[in-house]
Amino acid sequence: MSAERRVETRQYLLGFGVALLLTGAAFAAVYWQKFAALPTLGIVFALGLTQVIVHIRFFLHVGFKKSAREDLQLILFSALIIALMVSGTLVLLLNLRGRML
Amino acid sequence: MSTGEVRHVGLNLGATDAIAHRKAERAVFGFWVFLMSDAVLFALLFATYGSMLGATAGGPTAAAEFKLGSALFETLILLASSFTFGMASIAMKYRKAGESLAPLLVWLGVTLALGMTFLGMELHDFVGMFQAGAYPSRSGFLSAFFALVPLHGLHVFGGSLWVLVMMVQLASLGADAQVKINILKLGLFWHFLDIVWIAIFSVVYLQGLIR
Amino acid sequence: MNDALRYALFGKLAAQSLPFVRAWERPNLSEVIAAFAAALVLIAAAALFVLITARGKWRYLWEEWFTSLDPKRIAIMYVIVALVMLCRALIEGVLMRAQQAVAVNSAGFLSPDHFAQLFSTHGSIMVFFMAMPFIAGLLNYVVPLQIGARDVAFPLLNAVSFWLTAGAAALMMGSLVIGRFSTGGWSGYPPYTELAFSPGVGPDYWIWAVTLGSIGSTLTGLNFIVTIFKMRAPGMHMMRMPLFCWTALCTAILMIFAMPALTVATALLALDRYLGYHFFTNDLGGNMMNYANLFWLFGHPEVYILILPAFGVYSEVVSTFSSKALYGYASLAVATSAIAVLSFTVWVHHFFTMGQSSNINGAFGIATMAIGIPTGVKIYDWIWTMFRGEVRFTVPMLYSLAFMVTFVFGGFSGIILAMPPLDFQVHNTVFLVAHFHNMLIPGVLYGLLAGYHYWFPKAFGFCLNERWGRIAFGCWVAGFYVTFMPLYVLGLSGMVRRAQEVFDPAFRPWLSVSLCGALILLFALCSLGVQLWVSVRERAQNRVFVGDPWDGRSLEWSVSAPPPAYVFAVIPEVHDRDAFYESKRRHDARRRPARFEDIELPRNSAVGVTIGLSAAAAAFGLVWHIWWLASVGVLLVWAAVIARSFARNVHRVVPAAEVARTEERWLAAAAASPPITRPLETTSLNRGLAERSS
After folding, report:
1. Domains in chain C: boundaries
2. For B29, which residue in chain C has the nearest alpha carbon?
3. Which position among B163, C20, C420, C477 has the lowest Cβ density within 10 Å, counted as fewest Cβ atoms?
């Protein structure tokens, strides 16, 4: 096995391992719920976001290096647009619900 | 624009294959763009789900219907399948011309099996929910659930079909440039679906089961 | 045949679905008009079929057009679809104006149901099946040529996009012949479009036609993002691209991010209608307000998808016909990008009255006013481009000038509407109708017509008749003002939109004036038809084979008119902005290449046609609940995709010798043609070789 191949395999193994831990932590946080609802939700979301980044970095190979620059820019721009759309939707609909009750 | 350097990992077409390099770059970038539009689609379904969390209309709720165990199992299966696809990608990249396709086919086959297991489990879950009276036309909340999660399932089904087609193409056409490019795109798709699943198990299942 | 079997085979189809049967059973004027329209569609289709068969042209059409992956051919087909649909939708507009003019305290000649279908088809067609295809046509023809590429990034996907759009347009025309269309407007708001209130097939026609079209547009957006990012000629940095390509890029980005919102909105509505889901129903937890939210998350970027290419056309036209480089290129590029991003921050202004807090309305109102600023920057840039230039008042330039004045006026009404308290006053009145037509007609349509006139000689090798072009122009402008200015007044007076009957006699004179305007617009459309007829008849005298009739500045003018299939014998090397103009200045234009190479082009493919027609068939099946047809259609689509992925022999080679022959012929013609001065460019002396002036 060439050195390069070993490095790449290790990347996948590392990503897999970290993802497993993050998944386990999230499920554990809910199964053995130690905190109130909102903080627990925050923990779950934070772990999930971290895991998304782990997948992007270790499985999709998108990082800061030059060769992945365009993909990174695309992901960040999309994230911006998605954030605008989703937050706008939630703020709007929550506001409407509040005003109707 | 492109000087022929390999800009996307996983593809090893050799220095002489300039046209294939350019084609690969275009094909993979185009697929990224498609994935971003798919991401917007899912994001809006998530937003809709979020806005309908309370729309249970006196019917079954998340806490009542979601099962932590099966959600965990499905998550682990899909995560494992992402890993096995990664192994397939490596097998493809480092396979020299003339070497056996068997490792690549095996890793793809395992990925396919894991994908089908995931789908089977998910269908089983849905049937269980239906039998408990939690079907989409019962409430807005269940409608939102049964749009978001089955859409992901449909994507996994499409991806599994794609894995099967690629395995057939490997066997019949060999690992030519076009097949490799398509496997690269499939890899992006498969990992993307796992990322969407992270959002699903966090926003749908775990959120629903928090007390 | 028992009922279950009939339903399994034919779904909800019945004799009543035909407008002829409905007109026979209830022969009022409204039904007769509907039957007449259906008859027209059938007769036109039959006549076309007979004509093509009699001339023995099926093979030619199949091999040269339907299965072609050449973006130039696909572009022309897009524009043809757009022009045909423009005819239908404009007539629908005239019918509506006529109804409103006569139905003042009287029933008029159109039933409420018919009138509602008209405003729904008019809007849906104009947006999705006139403007979007026209834009796709311009993008397809011009962008590859302008960036120095031979093709788009994904030629087959391009054909699929076209055929999905064409299939959807066919579905729209089909709705005239079988069944009814939606009465819910082009926006299809539930709960009115839910089964409870619209149990017929109308909203389903709307949902599936729009869905197919929107998938086609999303794929077009994908294609052009990759084309512009990855296929520019060597040396063509982003800041050296023609402005039309900048607007094309931003349009494509908008398509990618905005179309999914429409797909979600219509898909969720379809789930409600087909599977009893409760996304937007009145009961069991449905929230209809989310539909408005989702639809306009798409809808606002959509209007920028429509206008940005038009802005691109104006940039090209104003620069060329002012004989000057664009003023403020960088600011134009930045403004275009800013508009693209900001377009995702204003959607709530389409439903200020829906009930959210005034803080939210205020925030979106401010964002809406802000988005007017980059557009203002562009207007100033175009004006400064003309300043001290040698301005030539050709038809494209006339449209651009009319745009600058009229669109800005419409923009003012937009700023009024951007203020929530003012918007509340005129919400759902014809003031709004006047505003958006004031943006779409002088903004989008004039841009499309300017682009049509500007690039027609490049695509077909001969110029359009200038005199009829001016007549059409005059009528489009006069017609617009006479039709829509009264609607501003009427809206402020309180006249509601989408009204089949009005009850205030004071509205009548204004409505009558508006009807006259609509007739002028109809005449404008006919003038375009006459222009085309005359131009084709006189094409031999007006050939511009050398390819540069307007003393153009960008690369599309550097090849023959029409260009060969491979466009560029050698991919150009670009050193400046206005690449072709600069190469003319350096006396470097139309040089014989040092050597000729074999050129690889995509082979024709039936996959595009197959996918488009299968998808349309599936959509028809879904509309009428003919489940076997829907399933077969979907399976055929996937089968075509999978089968194509096995294909390997998908290219053809144009041998170097043939390239050489084609180029020599063109260069010889260029050498033999007398150059044309700018004042004479619209005469038949123009051979396409613009004289190199100072």
Report:
1. 1-56, 57-103+113-605+650-680
2. C226
3. C20
Q: What is the mean pLDDT of residues C225-235?
A: 96
Range of the domain at A84: 64-101
pLDDT in tens, C361-391: 999 999 999 999 999 999 999 999 999 999 9
pLDDT digits (tens, 9 = 90+) for C408-434: 999 999 999 999 999 999 999 999 999
Number of domains present in the structure of chain A: 2
Which residues in chain B are contacts of A8 at CB distance < 8 A? 9, 90, 93
Q: Quick check: is B44 in a domain?
A: no
* Spatial CA neighbour of C555 closest among C543, C542, C567: C567
Question: What's the gap in Å between the CA of B48 and the closest CA on chain C?
Answer: 7
Mention the CATH class of domain C57-103+113-605+650-680: mainly alpha
Dist CA C434 CA C410 (whole Å) = 8
CA neighbor of C589 nearest in space, from C600, C597, C578: C578
Q: Which of A82, A91, A93 to mutate to test the interface with B (most CBs of B within 10 A)?
A: A82
Q: Which residues of C touch B147 (CB under 8 A)?
A: 267-268, 271, 277, 279
CB contact (8 A) between residue B25 and residue C259: no
The conformation of residue B101, written as its DSSP 8-state character, comes to S
pLDDT over 90 at B11, yes or no: no
Contact C297/A89, CB-based, under 8 Å? yes
Question: Do A86 and A53 sit in the same domain of this protein?
Answer: no
Q: Measured between CB atoms, which of C344, C355, C356 is closest to A81?
A: C344
Total tally of structural domains belonging to chain B: 1
Name which of A2, A9, A59, A97 to mutate to probe chain B: the one with the most chain B Cβ atoms within 10 A of its Cβ: A59
pLDDT at B17: 52
Mean pLDDT score, C659-667: 96
The strand pairing partners of C654, in sequence order, are C599
**CATH number of the domain that residue B81 is part of:** 1.20.120.80
Is B37's CB within 8 Å of C261's CB? Answer: no
Q: Tell if the CB–CB gap between C278 and B182 is shorter than 8 Å.
A: no
Cβ-proximal residues to A41 (8 Å cutoff; 6+ apart), any chain? B206, B207, B210
A86 and A101 belong to one structural domain: yes
My answer on whether A97 and A53 are in the same domain is no
For helices C446-460 and C395-418, what crossing angle results, to 10°?
A: 150
Q: Which two tokens stand for residue C269?
A: 């509505």
For residues C482 and C451, give the distance between their C-alpha atoms in angstroms, rounded to a whole number: 24
Q: C599 pairs with which residues across the strands?
A: C654
Nearest CA to CA, how far is C67 from chain A (Å)? 33
Chain C residues within an 8 Å CB radius of B139: 278, 284-285
DSSP C220-288: HHHHHHHHHHH-PPTT--GGGS-HHHHHHHHHHHHHHHHHHHHHHHHHHHHHHHHH---SS-SSTT--H
pLDDT category, B8, cuts 50, 70, 90?
Answer: low
Q: For chain C, give the mean pLDDT.
A: 96
pLDDT for C694 beyond 70: no
Nearest CB among A70, A81, A100 relative to C257 is that of A81
**The domain containing residue B126 runs over which residues?**
72-210
The chain A residue lying nearest C254, using CA atoms, is A81
Min Cα distance B133 → chain A (Å) is 25
pLDDT tier, B18 (very low <50, low <70, confident <90, very high otherwise): low
B109 located within any domain: yes
